[in-house]
YjgP/YjgQ family permease
Amino acid sequence: MSFFPSRTLALYMARMFLLRTLAVLGALVVVLQTLDLLGESGSILAYPGNGQEQLWYYVSLRAPQIIARFLPFSVLLATLITLATLNQNSEVISMKAAGLSAHQVLAPLIVASLGVAAVSFVFNERIVARATATLAQWEHVDYGPVPKQRALQTNVWVRDGAMLMRAGEVHGGGATTWLKDVTVYDRSSGALDQILNAPEARYVADGGGWRLAGGARFDVARGVRVPIGPVTIARGVRPDQFTLADVDGDSLSVRELRGAIADLKSAGRQTASLESSYYHKFSGPLSAVLMPLLGAVAGFGLARSGRLFVRAVVGMALGFTYFVADNFSLAMGNLSAYPPMLAAWAPFFLFLLIGEAVLIRTEE
């Protein structure tokens, strides 16, 4: 009546499963990182002074992303390899002959995958989010030196009526917000009338607006560029439109993303896509728990029937269909077509029911 009638058997299967997960993950990371580096090395080395050190730095930032993305795939492939090996060696038959049900055979793998999911969540929070943010900043400067004091946001566009404002960097917050490398496109007549460039702009708390610190004005019709003194523009643009304009959920931890969502909601901004990313930070690592269940079809049935390969293909198809459904659902959540909770958790529970239905109907 116990899910673990044999401690020795449970440890044997869990160890086999974890070792194969690490082996498959290592092989995938080496191959995919090599291909990614081959495609990106030209851009990295194109910056003067970059060399082998910068290539290894890129690997240190990109490898955590690859690990986080392909860990569930590794769990799926490790499940198929483990169960197919046990089946081929008639070990599954021995377990069932000893009285173990299909769920009891899978129990050590599911418990081990829970540990993998916990490690994956901590890894995403502590390493992947920071690596993603740092890599995005490095890519923004074309793999050149990253300033020590980076902007909160970069390359932010805001519209004020017929005027478009672009800020290369956004510093500070609230009334102390200031912009660096500012470009303003004036389209008051319906066409591009003039372009303003300024090294920086600061928010004017009294009366609103942004004061450009010098710069130049380019008159499109006359083709003339003239310097301008301090001038205040865009009185209808609030600081939060810059500081909260481009929040990347992948670059933030759970706590940071929750705070950003709260700030956006208080500013009256849409947060559906970020909420989907927030919930997916929990459902994503838990996908590792589904893999033993979806790949279980490869572990049962007679190996001598010649259908072991077909069963492995079916298990792989179920697993990869889950990843397709998960990405599709998350995309629908980002488009606000699905509610955030549904977008993040619906594929998980749907395939949990599918896996259980297949297992019960075929083996129980």
Summary: Residues 162 and 191 are 9 Å apart (CA to CA). The two ends are 15 Å apart (CA to CA). Strands lie at 153-160, 163-171, 178-186, 194-203, 210-212, 216-219, 224-227, 231-233. The longest helix spans residues 7-46.
